[in-house]
Amino acid sequence: MSALEIGAVGDVVAERTVHLTRESLVRYAGASGDFNPIHYRDDVAAAVGLPGVLAHGMLTMGLAVETVVPWLGDAGRIIDYGVRFTRPVVVDPEVGAEVSVVAKIGAVEDDAARIDLTVTFGGTTVLGKAQVRVRTA
Predict the structure, then answer these.
(1) Which of 34, 44, 77, 134 is the most core-located residue (most Cβ within 10 A)?
(2) 52 contact partners, CB below 8 Å, separation of at least 6
(3) How many domains does the chain have?
(4) Nearest to residue 125, comparing CAs of 85, 97, 91?
């Protein structure tokens, strides 16, 4: 693995917007085994006081970190990754949901860097303190 070119703190290294649909949620449920009905049934989501069917938190977390993989060139460079779930992603049955991710260099160490992810849905941050530590050497 060769050295990764790191820019300056504050530089954007990757960004993308992911469109989620109800079909996306069903596919993720099948892959993950998480068949909690709040992720596909409006009546159940409403019955427990939710604003609608929610994207799986781990789906949101996964699509966020995947944003930096093309820049890294190898997912094996990821040392650790953590987030705080702050707001839900409500997936409308007809229009879906757009989740946007912006990855910026947050800190640079000798052989690693911290990448800060800003993950938003509808203009609101949905993952707090989303940070990826990556190996640069």
Answers:
(1) 134
(2) 42, 45, 46, 90, 91, 92
(3) 1
(4) 85
CATH number at residue 81: 3.10.129.10
What is d(CA 14, CA 39) in angstroms, rounded to the nearest whole number? 28
Joined together, the tokens standing for residue 9 give 């703190």
Confidence of residue 1 (pLDDT cuts 50, 70, 90): low
Give the type of residue at 49: G
Q: Answer yes or no: are the C-beta atoms of 81 and 65 closer than 8 Å.
A: yes
Q: Is residue 128 part of a domain?
A: yes
Domain that holds residue 107: 12-20+55-135
Residue 124 tokens, joined: 């609101």
Do residues 115 and 92 lie in contact, with contact meaning Cβ atoms separated by under 8 Å? Answer: no
